[in-house]
Amino acid sequence: MSEDNIIYVGKKDTMDYVMAVVTQFRSGSAEVVIKARGKAISRAVDVAEIVRHRFVREAVVKDVRIGTEVLGEEGEGTKVSSIEIYLAR
Amino acid sequence: MSEDNIIYVGKKDTMDYVMAVVTQFRSGSAEVVIKARGKAISRAVDVAEIVRHRFVREAVVKDVRIGTEVLGEEGEGTKVSSIEIYLAR
Q1: Contact A72, A78 (CB under 8 A)
Q2: For A37, A73, B77, B87, which has the most beta carbons within 10 A of its beta carbon?
Q3: Are B66 and A45 in contact (CB under 8 A)?
Q4: ipTM rounded to 2 decimals
């Protein structure tokens, strides 16, 4: 899968990411992965839910994976939770 | 599964919920469900990750479900995203 199909959710408005995901589907992608870390995880879930309920109604949540990523230098990194939401139609 | 196996994550300290989940496992539960809504979703993921990496290392993420719940009166409810994380050992 091309990198284009991955939308990283951060601190911008939820609808900015919703539109990015919708654009990916409209450009022909069969699957879009929504990724986020830390406090942005809640927003990533909002993005997935808004996309599939309001914009791409045939989209389904194929998989949700959670994990832990280490930020910063090796050995002194801060741990942060992460999520990957796989939306497919 | 009994209601005891469901831990609702809200605005308290993350470690309070971690301890609640660990206590459930230590009391003999084979599965614990961590639930949260809205901004608490990020904290729920933190809780699951901390439990399985630091306290109950044999626990695995069996399933993660996301959804939308309607709060308040019918027809005028606010929609909020939700998550359910199924931890099992």
Answers
A1: yes
A2: B87
A3: yes
A4: 0.92
* Cβ separation B49–A42 shorter than 8 A: no
A56 DSSP assignment: -
CATH number, domain of B56, equals 3.30.110.20
Contacts of B68 in chain A (CB under 8 A): 49, 53
Tokens found for residue A61: 């949540």
Domain carrying residue A26: 3-88
- Asked if A45 lies within 8 A of B83 by C-beta distance, the reply is yes
Q: Give the closest-approach CA distance of B67 to chain A in angstroms.
A: 7
The tens digit of pLDDT for each residue in A26-80 reads 999 999 999 999 999 999 999 999 999 999 999 999 999 999 999 887 667 799 9
Tokens for B11? Answer: 């605005």
**Closest CA relative to residue B81, chosen from B52, B45, B50:** B45
Structure tokens at B19: 């301890």
Of A16, A13, A15, A22, which is closest to residue A5 (Cα–Cα)? Answer: A22
Our count of domains for chain B comes to 1
Joined together, the tokens standing for residue B69 give 């719940």
A interface test, pick of B53, B64, B79 with most A CB neighbours within 10 Å: B64
